[in-house]
Amino acid sequence: MTLYAATGAIEQGFVYGIMVIGVYLTFRILDFPDLTVDGSLPLGAAISAVAITSGVNPYLSLVYAMGGGFLAGMVTAVLNTRFKILHLLASILTMIALYSINIRIMSGPNVALLGVNTVFDPVIGLGVPPHYAGLVVFAAFAILVVSAIIWFLGTELGQAMLATGDNPQMIRSLGVNTHTIIILGVGLSNGLVAFSGALVAQNQGAADVGMGIGTIVAGLASVIIGETIFGTRSTARAFIAALLGSIVYRMAIALALGLNIGGFSFNPSDLNLITAILVVGALIAPQLKDRFLNK
Amino acid sequence: MKRLLLCVALSFFALVQGVQAGEYRISVNQFVEHPALDSVLRGMQDYFSEHGVEVQWKVHNAQANMGTATQIAQQMIGEKADLLVAIATPSAQACAQALNKAPASMKRPLLFTAVTDPVAAGLVRDLQHPGGYITGVSDLLPVEKHVEMIREFLPGLKRLGVLYNAGEANSKSIIASLKKLCSDQGITVVEATASKTADVYQAAKSLVGQVDAVFIPTDNTIVSALESVIKVGTQNRLPIFAADVDSVARGAVAAMGFDYYRHGLQTGAMAHRILEGADPGGIPVEFQKDLELHINRKYATLMGVVPPRDLLTRAARIY
To answer: Which segment of the chain is annotated as a signal peptide (chain B) (predicted)?
Structure first.
């Protein structure tokens, strides 16, 4: 792996890390497996791309993207809480609907963002070399998001959200409306995913309707890698672990890309397989360690 | 335990190294595994071996994931190859962006291929004078030639069905030009879309009874599931025409063809010029030069059309 690729992997780890924080919120905190993210990531990208190309400030476009993601998450949560549709199914329905909606927002499947103003320009203006601008911006946003979410979960509303995932009956008996909490939580989660999508699009030079494919897989893999390697002793630590898990996951992909084994060479098409093997390796390494050490 | 881990890690990194020397080094970012895109790569590689030019290839495949395409682009910049090649639009955009941001010492020429609309994709501002580090070969279809061919089969063509995935940028621009062209010629275009291969069969069926013939552009989703369209065509005697010649071998009546292998050869020739020192910014974007006509007689009969004698004599290949 070259240094350039490693830097790139950390950069991708941070930007997708914001998505992973969103996935952690639904998957672990609310106990709500949510596949909306495969649609809300490109939704954020689409909103941001269309806003920027029609002259909106790139930073403001992030707020719009987040709002769009929040609404998408709300739709899933309302389908689940009000209309009793199973959470997985509700989120799949929102996800496939978003595919069409995203094409409509972009009036096509792809909006190019090459050579337009993006969130990186002010940072580059401050003297940061362009190839580090992504790293700086994404690290700043990711740290901001993690801090904000840790702060939020300390508030009364945040505590209610934690309790809703842990023990909905108990929290209902305290007079809290768990439906409202779930709607807020899934909304917030998808808001973060869309925010991540908006940044990804600005970084890769295009919003594309197909860019959400595999988001949930990357999200869950990152969450689980983070948990195994960095632990979940406290809520704050768990969120930081999720963010770091995202970086490790992207590193695994970078490693797989650089893989070249002398006579036997992998096909470029083996990338997904190699990545899966590397991730499985990261997952079972601690178990193997325990087994060997405890013998 | 620690020693074991160390050994594993060391042997792993030893394996990661070990790259052979070659005259030129080309890094490729292919978006997805797909017969047409694979043909482009093969054509390009064959060009160099036919011309006796030694190239050390580094081929990456994003497996249809844009996040991975971006990581591949960053990986490629780090590989410091002599030339970067991007196959298909999302990969080209990811490479262009990585290149924009790379420090001056790491900038390399970028050649895109199998990109339908390089201007809309933001890759170049001007097809004649790309400028900068980027140029390439576009696979924009000559739809007027295709419609002309279908009319030679079916002179009374009134309603033409078209099957595509609305999520593919290449198809979207082809459909736009097809609709404009057909309305000029008094032909109604009936669209059917499928967003994944599993929906193709149903989308094809929806056209039965509504159209005189079906045209399939170079759409990744539809071409991947071509057999289900052919099945609908033979069951309902509905002629299916394609834009790429590979589909004719699989059962389309005919294609005025786009041959992705030749597209690759053409890309290889352009790559060679750049490697020999030509300035990519000064090379105009190229389009497919020679089109081949392929006809499948057996399937034409099954789908109820008779290939005109004139077309048969012009065909480069008859199945």
So the answer is: 1-21
| Identity of the residue in B1, B71, B98 whose CB atom sits nearest the CB atom of A292 | B1
SS3 B30: strand
What is the separation, in whole angstroms, between the first and last Cα of chain B? 63
CB contact under 8 A, B75 and A2: yes
In sequence order, the 6+-apart residues with CB closer than 8 A to the CB of A264 are none
Q: Between these two residues, A268 and B271, which has the higher pLDDT value?
A: B271
Distance CA B264, CA B271 (A): 10
Q: Do B72 and A261 touch (CB under 8 A)?
A: no
Average pLDDT of span B94-110: 92
**CA–CA gap between residue A160 and residue A275 (Å, rounded):** 37
Please judge whether B103 and A131 are an interchain contact, meaning their C-beta atoms are less than 8 angstroms apart.
yes
Q: Do A110 and B71 touch (CB under 8 A)?
A: no
Both tokens of A278, joined, read: 């590397």
Pairing of strands B254-258, B240-244: parallel
Radius of gyration of chain A from Cα atoms?
Answer: 19
Element holding A41 (H helix, E strand): helix A37-53
How confident is the model over B270-285, as pLDDT tens digits? 999 999 999 999 999 9
Q: Which of B16, B61, B66 sits opposite A211 (nearest CB)?
A: B66
Using the predicted structure, report yes or no on whether residue B16 has a pLDDT greater than 80.
no
Kindly give the residue spans of alpha helices, DSSP state H, lying in A126-270. 130-154, 156-166, 168-173, 178-204, 215-230, 235-258
pLDDT at B22: 53
In whole angstroms, give the CA distance from residue B93 to residue B67: 12
Q: Which phi and psi (to 5°) does residue B49 adopt?
A: -70, -35
Chosen for mutation from A202, A257, A259, A265 (greatest number of chain B CBs closer than 10 Å) is A257
Chain A hits for B3, Cβ within 8 Å: none
Which amino acid would we find at residue B217? P
Query: Is the CB of B65 inside 8 Å of chain A's CB atoms?
Result: yes
How far, in whole angstroms, is CA B207 from its chain's centroid?
25
Cα–Cα dist B193/A90, whole Å: 24
Helices A87-106 and A58-81 cross at an angle (nearest 10°) of 150
Is B96 at the interface with chain A, CB within 8 A? yes
Structure tokens at B110: 């970028």
pLDDT at A146: 97
Looking at residue B236, the DSSP 8-state letter turns out to be T
Q: State which residue of chain A sits closest to B67, comparing Cα positions.
A: A211
Residue among B59, B93, B106 whose CB faces A206 most closely: B93
Q: Is B142 helix (H, G, I), strand (E, B) or coil?
A: coil
Token pair for B87: 């196959």
